[in-house]
């Protein structure tokens, strides 16, 4: 299968800080890939590189230009406008006429269970509701690839479960999921594959079952022991 993303010996630096070092990775359609690792290990940098927001300093990076992508951040950005307009604007920016954009936005809000709040000011919603608006905004664009940077880290357990449920449904509908998480339970529930990063290096890349049931490289095993212990 032709990969959606191919990284060969990719390095990214911020000034003198090496954020990614020599990373090689293939990501294929249908993968549910979790990025794990300590703070500062390079997860966000890898996601932003995959989304084309950062150009690698070294190495080769290729992505399937036909595969539409959407990215969600830890704290979604909401415009001071209605929920409906927050979703419709993303479509309009992708050349969908405004009337059609509003109709499709409403369908996307129905998809995430927020149609009732379409007229509310998006800035006034709770964190969990805002993340669901962000998921509706992504869903409306019908991306093949959804990148998520710690999408549930600031949410309470109920909101977390709801966002996880939607992520699983989107993956079941055929979307490729690539997400970073500090929540190993979530990684077990959602991922089919786990990439472990340490200080910008890709230390392990394994099916989820193999990652949690070892054997692992020492660094990854110590991380897991620390997180689970
Ligand atoms: N814009 C930036 N300018 C300078 N250094 C940066 C920038 N973004 C990231 N870094 C550095 O690059 C390294 C990797 O950071 P990154 O945010 O990718 O890690 P992370 O694994 O996502 O961390 P966290 O779990 O805390 O979100 C860190 O040393 C970080 O300080």
Automatic annotation (TrEMBL):
It is found in: Cell membrane. GO terms for molecular function: ATP binding; ATP hydrolysis activity; phosphate transmembrane transporter activity. This is Amino acid ABC transporter ATP-binding protein, PAAT family. Keywords: ATP-binding, Cell membrane, Membrane, Nucleotide-binding, Phosphate transport, Transport. It comes from the Bacteria. Belongs to the ABC transporter superfamily. GO terms for cellular component: plasma membrane. It comes from Polaromonas naphthalenivorans (strain CJ2). It is a peripheral membrane protein. GO terms for biological process: phosphate ion transmembrane transport. Pfam families: ABC_tran (PF00005). The keyword Hydrolase does not apply. Residues 5-224 form the ABC transporter domain.
